[in-house]
Write a structure and sequence with these properties.
It is a single chain. The protein is about 50% helix and about 10% strand. The chain has seven helices and four strands. The longest helix is centred in the middle third of the chain and has 31 residues, at about 85-115. The chain is globular and about 45 Å long.
């Protein structure tokens, strides 16, 4: 059976959990506490030398890491990853956007607020995250004004990648009231058969 090493509250780990549930694939969830340093143990570093979650361990013991890479592996050959080269590249565009423009601001603000309880030494960083995070949300809003999903008409791993932290953006202090297309998209994703919540 597949094994997922992760933290239920982590958006990056949630991506993998959501994908596996959408595909109806059985897996074992192994909880890893990053605040207790459990990603830095010798045993964990043998699975991911970069010391981060999530990690997907395959039946043969091979370990895959980096959430969006794992999504591509799991979605290969399914409707969640288009075969058309142009659409497939657009999926990658949004995944790169998520890792470089969205996650570093929205997820980090959430970590500072939810995990660390807003330490004073990170307040300036938190405020910078808001500036950049709202910029990323405006990019998504513009796209979702034109298409029901991030890549045209099809629910794909681009949506899974960006849903993970966007749907809990309020936990990092972000107000989505000015983003009606994003809010409609969040509802659309949550209504998909096989959907599972972050803490379910």
């Amino acid at each position: 059976m597949l094994k997922v090493y992760g933290d239920y509250r982590s958006g990056n780990c949630y991506k993998i959990k959501l994908m596996l549930n959408l595909l109806g694939m059985p897996y074992e969830w192994i909880a890893v506490d990053i605040l207790k340093g459990e990603t830095q143990t010798e045993a964990f570093l043998a699975k991911n030398p970069n010391g981060k979650i999530p990690v997907l361990e395959l039946e043969d013991g091979t370990c895959l890491w980096e959430s969006n890479a794992i999504l591509n592996y799991l979605a290969d050959g399914t409707s969640f990853l288009p075969t058309d080269p142009r659409l497939r590249t657009q999926v990658l565009q949004w995944q790169f956007f998520e890792q470089y423009s969205h996650e570093p601001s929205i997820a980090v603000a959430r970590f500072i607020q939810l995990y660390q309880n807003m330490p004073e030494e990170r307040l300036a960083e938190y405020q910078r995250c808001h500036v950049l995070g709202y910029k990323a949300l405006r990019v998504m809003e513009k796209q979702l004004q034109n298409t029901p999903y991030l890549v045209a008409e099809q629910y794909s791993i681009a949506d899974i990648a960006l849903y993970a932290y966007t749907h809990v953006a309020d936990e990092g202090g972000f107000d989505l009231s000015d983003f009606p297309s994003i809010r409609t998209w969040l509802d659309r994703v949550a209504c998909h058969p096989g959907h599972i919540g972050m803490l379910d």
